[in-house]
Amino acid sequence: MEFQLTKTQIEIQKAVRDFCKGEFDKDLALELERQHAFPTKIWQKAGEIGLIGVHFPEQYEGQGLGCMECILVVEELCRNDSTIGAAVALSGFASELLLHHGSEELKEKYLPQVAEARMLSAGAFTEPDHGSDLTYLNTTAARDGDHWVINGGKTFITNGGLAGFYIVLCQTDPDARPGYRGMSIFLVEGDRPGLTTQDVGHKMGIRMMATAEVTFKDVRVPATHLLGEENKGFYQVLNFFDESRVQVAAQALGTAQGAYDRALAYVKEREQFGRKIAQFQVTQHKLADMATKIELARLITYKAAWNFDQGRIDPKLTSMAKMYAARTAVEVCDEAIQMLGGYGYMTEYEVERFYRDAKITEIYEGTREIQKNTIAGSILGKTLKE
Ligand SMILES: Cc1cc2nc3c(=O)[nH]c(=O)nc-3n(C[C@H](O)[C@H](O)[C@H](O)COP(=O)(O)OP(=O)(O)OC[C@H]3O[C@@H](n4cnc5c(N)ncnc54)[C@H](O)[C@@H]3O)c2cc1C
Fold first, then answer.
1. At what angle do helices 67-80 and 233-269 cross, to 10 degrees?
2. How far away, in angstroms, is 324 Cα from ligand 1 center?
3. 293 CA distance to ligand 1 centroid (A)?
4. Taking a C-beta distance cutoff of 8 angstroms, is the pair 94, 133 a contact?
């Protein structure tokens, strides 16, 4: 057993740290979040130095590295700024589905644009009536000659309205029972006639990212935009979650670490009752609890990423990592606010923003309860059969 990062991985961490030091700015972050604006310049610079799509092969302008290197980038970005970090980390959301299932032509056309931060991508799975339960969908795709015609609507779509393309999960066989046996995924460009988006409105956190409803009205895509095999879309998305949930775990881990760093610095400076707050034993115990949880979240997140890179797909471990890291992020950020007292409640001190950003990691890509269902299902040998 080896718990040491490789030389390359340590260099990547340092490169991201240096990048954040040079590009991230607290006041800029506050302003971007206030305006609900995407951090375009930072995203572009991150793309220029190769921090996006590090797990894409080099032929698509990636770094040819793995999930492990990808999550080290995500962790470090979110540690430095939870909101900017999440926006950059999710800029290529669901592009892995294109990487794993797309034709060479589509991959060559779109993946370099994602990796070089010239294009955002989105994954459109959730519908107004189908959130946790994706086993049947109202969005349909019907074959019409050498095209597919998509109708329906998705909601809560990250990068919705800004994305160059959407990876859309559709019901292709409405008669399939159970419904998930008749789903397929499609790449749909954002400018296809009939595709419209509407912002979902004000949200608690991750405010630099757009979140939108996406409506499809007779949207036609060429047959070549079907990714992988027809009617296998549900399983493709489940496999994608094995990768993407580790990335969310890393987002949560970085957010927790970032809040902890700020709380630690504060309690070493702030004095009450003639002593540094860090000198109170209760504060020391809080730090001990926070650091322990973060360390555990890191161990399981790294293990899940490492496993993925070894080709050992283990949904139970992935769900454990996502669930544990997300809970850790919420709890650590909560405690960080408490340790800063009234200042912790103020926007300027950042930890309240980290707290608001942390919560989404317990909701998207499967809620905490859904992760528990996956873990329990795996323990009891209950999985959805093809
Ligand atoms: C900001 C934001 C960004 C998002 N980005 C995307 C995106 O890019 N793409 C995308 O496709 N989706 C996205 N989502 C959607 C997200 O994945 C869903 O919100 C999530 O899966 C839960 O679905 P729901 O909101 O419909 O809640 P519901 O499924 O209605 O769940 C409500 C509650 O019931 C619980 N519950 C449901 N079923 C069970 C069960 N079987 N056992 C126990 N408890 C259960 C849930 O855990 C939850 O607590 C995003 C959501 C948000 C808020």
1. 40
2. 17
3. 25
4. no
